[in-house]
Amino acid sequence: MDLPESQALRIINRHMWLAMGVGLLPIPLIDMAALLGIQIRMLRQLSRNYNVHFSRDIVKKLVSSLVGAVIPTSLAGIVGSALKAVPGVGPYIGGVSMPIFAGATTLAIGKIFMQHFESGGTFLDFEPARVRAYFRQEFEAGQKQAWEAWERRRTSGAPPSNATAAGDNPRTADF
């Protein structure tokens, strides 16, 4: 694995954990705004890693377009965020579904842009419509990875190990 790729995996993994932490915020819809900020920050770091010009306005539109591709099939993020407002059980249900949604979308966005930048792409030539099916696929894989990471963290009680990814392949890296 080359240096930019291993750096990119560390950036993505670190931001997955940050996103999952934001998913725990008890205030409905504030978590969604904070999640967007984390994903934009991740893409800024990835763009630096690959020497790609960064434009916050363009990135915000691209992220919104990609996340919109999974909202109809997985309302977990919005429902999880809104459930936090339900007295009693709401914070518990929202407190599990929202971190997983946040981690999965962040992983998927990171991997999509990592691949795009590695092939010489920029934010200006990125076409969300062309990668929607692949994004959904990465989102589904990301849900599994985020859930497994969440469970490992919950059962071990240990913090994430250095926020680094194991493995040589970003598709099989143990996030």
Fraction of residues in helix: 55-70%
Tally of helical segments: 6
End-to-end distance: 16 Å
How much of the sequence lies in strands comes to under 5%
Radius of gyration: 15 Å
Number of domains: 1
The shape is: globular
Describe the biggest sheet? none
Give a structural overview.
It is a single chain. By secondary structure, this protein is mainly α. The chain contains 6 helices and no strands. Helices cover 69% and strands 0% of the residues. The two termini are 16 Å apart. The relative contact order is 0.18. Residues 73-78 and 162-175 have low confidence and may be disordered.
Short description:
The protein has 6 helices and no strands.
Key structural traits:
disordered C terminus, mainly alpha, 6 helices, 175 residues
Topology:
Elements: H1 3-22, H2 30-49, H3 56-70, H4 76-83, H5 90-118, H6 128-156
Helix pairs in contact: 1-2, 1-5, 2-3, 2-5, 3-6, 4-5, 5-6
